[in-house]
Amino acid sequence: MTTKKVLVDTDIGGDIDDALCLAYLLGHPSCELMGITTVSGEVEKRAMIADAICKVAGRNVPIHAGADKPLLPSPLYPKPDGAARLSNWAHETAFQKYRAVDFLRQTIRENPHEISLLAIGQLTNIALLFLIDPEIPELIKELHIVCGVFSDELQTSPDMPMANWNSWADPHACAIVYHTNVPVRRTFGLNVTTRLTLQRREKADLFSSDIMKAVEDFGSPWLENNVMTFHDPLAAACLFEPQICEYQRGVIDVEIKDERTLGMMHFRPSDDGCGEIATSVNRNHFFEHYFSIVCR
Question: Above pLDDT 90, what percent of the chain?
Answer without folding.
Answer: 82
